[in-house]
Amino acid sequence: MTASGDSRTTYQQDLLGHIEYRSTKPIKAYEKWFITGIDTVIKAIETTIKASHDLAEFQQRVEDNADEKYLYSSLQNIFRTIEGAAADVTGYKRTQFRQLVSMAERVPDAEGMSFPDNKPDFVLAEVPPMSGPLTPALDAGSGGIKWRQICGFIEVKPSVKEGPNGARSTTVRHIVSQGANYARLIMAARPFQLYVLCIFIYGHKFSLGWYDRRGVIISDDYDIVDDLKILINVVLQLTTHMTTYQLGHDRSACLLEGHSYYQAEYPSFLVSMGADGDTYRWQTQGPPIWSSLSLLGRGTATWRAVSVGMKKAPVVVLKTLWRSQTQRSESNVYWRIKSPLPGVAELSLGDDVRIPVAMETHAPVSVGILRSLILDDDIGVPDDPILHRLALKTVGRPLWDAETTKNFVLGSLAALKGHQGLVEQGILHRDMSPGNIFLGSLGCAEGWEGFVADLELASVAQPETETIVTLHPLPPSAGQLNTRGVFREDTVASSSKAPGAEITGTALFMAKELLDVMVISDKSRKVRPAQIERGVHHDLESFILVLFYAVMRRGLNRQLWAEKNQADQLRIEELYRSLFGGHTIQHIRIGRSSFLGEKPSYLFDVVDDPIAALLYGCWNLLKIQCITTDSTRTADLFAEVDQMMQWGSGSAKPKLITYAQLYDLYGIAIRKLN
Q1: pLDDT tens across 58-102, in order?
Q2: Taking the CA of residue 366 as centre, how many other CA atoms within 13 Å lie in the half-sphere pointing to its CB?
Q3: CA 617, 623, 626 angle in degrees (round to 5)?
Q4: Could you tell me which residues are beta bridge partners of residue 533?
Q5: Are strands 122-126 and 150-157 parallel, antiparallel or unpaired?
Q6: Which pLDDT value is given to residue 117?
């Protein structure tokens, strides 16, 4: 299972302007689901808690300024008391089975996903059903709890001063950014989770939180003693009463009968488009192929799945993402492709996911719709994203799974030709990354040895209707005749823009010119209107970086070079980390500059001749395109110094990468294959 991620500092900045403080909305997530005789049940639980002295012990430790870890045991006892619901007195019958578990120093099992070693103080974990009122206490150690089991959390701080509701809205409190981190990990581990509910406890105060793809909503402060009934109601709902869907799970993705989030193997789901009478169904197979680690944004996840109800049950790639209403849907871009285009994934079906909003009435799932249905929030969400789902006929494998050098060369070449085919039809991909370039199936037809997919960020040169984003074809530049398809993206400076929406693409593989613009925007501390000429050369730079990534990952995964030269193996591991391990734009730029500053001969030496020729040529193309030009102010000054010292001009101009250059390199690689 693979994931892409963002750093805490990045999404902390993204959260600015997307947090609603001291709101009356979060409590409504728990008031809609009525429990029969709730007042009697809450009163009995309250009496039990006060009789046990757990609450008094918690209060005393808060007053003594005890370390946070000394608060856990009292809180754990209180939560277990609430879960038990004083059933021997009240006769309460639970319908759902979850448990709030103290994690202490233990981290949930990420099952191979690239998760940081972070964890909430308490997790809301799904557990097997029991006949009694109280589930057996879970052991959080030794991989006892998996991230996919977790559907909510509680974060604890010892002091009221560390609460989420700060006096200033210009900064994001640490507890809020921690919550964002946990919410994104929950959504990545269980990609059908549409929002995450949580509780913040800080000193003798607590508040309720809601995280979704457009930000955070936090309630006002409650007092644990004075508002104990509210805490009891919320915890009782979370552990024993609210359904999976009421906790934020996508209604159109049901666990397969007999499957659960707590079972040993990753469960399968029966997935539809959500509307009544919908005849399309897919059954997922295994964990997601790809799951985004970001909180704000598209939240893309892909699955291997089979179509249900069809004789041959064809295998498809099932993809779900949150799309912007200001741009075409990915399905719309696929439908614009004229005839099956070799080297480009084929679409089987695509549409927005629906949710029932009234009797026999369905609407597309959006953040705004969810907030309206659950929180009675009808204010509206800026650039309200819509949940979109599509099934792709073309099923492939990552480039680094290539069995042979020939598979790698021909597969990546077919994907490159597919990219050019899209450009010739007026479509620029704009997100060439490892998750979007695939090898074809074994024994496939010529031209399908590899392909590009994921057109969710693609731009189209001739829009059918006017939208916020308009695209205009530009004439090719001198020396780039018919090879540089350039698109200008005019975006609107507006607070309605989605977080991080200015420049599209996967940052680790983004062209240097675009990274430089993002750094300038970051330094100005505001998102500026972008007027960027997005060209084919940007995508080709990203394509080359994917080649290096795939070659290194393939070799490192298979330990191909460990026996040849241990020193070279270690240098390649370090190159891989520095080039593809950056968590901020600045770190990515530093790694890229280091890579281009010194020729990685040690990598060229350990791969076979076709790959060495291809990578060496690509490295030089990158180096020439990424030459840093001097500013207007210093260019003349430096030229004068160059002339005086007679060492020739150091102000070389960058030359743009073209398809023709890459095809020449592939020609050399193929000759070496033979």
Answers
A1: 999 999 999 999 999 999 999 999 999 888 888 899 999 999 999
A2: 18
A3: 140
A4: 488
A5: antiparallel
A6: 86
pTM of the model: 0.83
Q: How far is CA 133 from the centre of its chain?
A: 37
Give the pairing of strands 531-535 and 486-490.
antiparallel
Count of beta carbons in the 10 Å neighbourhood of residue 125 = 28
The burial class, CB within 10 Å (0-12 / 13-18 / 19+), for 18 is buried
What stretches of 63-204 adopt beta strand conformation (E)? Answer: 98-102, 122-126, 150-157, 196-202
At 116, list the tokens: 């940081």
Nearest CA to 125 among 145, 109, 105? Answer: 145
Six-digit token string for 113: 């996903």
The single residue listed with the structure tokens 């050098």 is 405
Nearest to 124 by CA among 68, 69, 196, 221: 196
Here the tokens at position 191 are: 């990609």
* The pair of three-digit structure tokens given for residue 486, joined into one six-digit string: 């350039």
Gap between the Cα atoms of 589 and 299, Å rounded: 24
Residues 482 and 489: their CA atoms lie apart, in Å, by: 20
Q: Please, is 277 exposed, middle or buried when counting C-beta atoms within 10 Å of its C-beta (0-12, 13-18, 19+)? A: exposed
Task: Specify the amino acid at residue 446.
Answer: E
Residue 665 vs residues 560, 617, 626, 649: alpha-carbon distances, Å:
24, 6, 19, 29
Residue 561 is classified by DSSP as S
Q: Is the dihedral of CA 108, 159, 176, 98 positive or negative?
A: positive
Task: For CA atoms 468, 473, 479, 480, give the dihedral sign.
Answer: positive
What residues contact 180, with CB distance under 8 A and at least 6 apart?
Answer: 11, 12, 15, 211, 216, 295
Residue in this structure with the two tokens 């199936």, named with its chain if needed = 441
- Per residue in 230-277, pLDDT (tens digit) is 999 999 999 999 999 999 999 999 999 999 999 999 999 999 999 877
List the beta strands (DSSP E) in 129-266: 150-157, 196-202, 205-212, 215-219, 222-223, 253-255
Eight-class DSSP state of 671: H
CA distances 403 to 409, 417, 633, Å, are 11, 21, 52
- Phi and psi at 148, nearest 5°, equal -70, -15
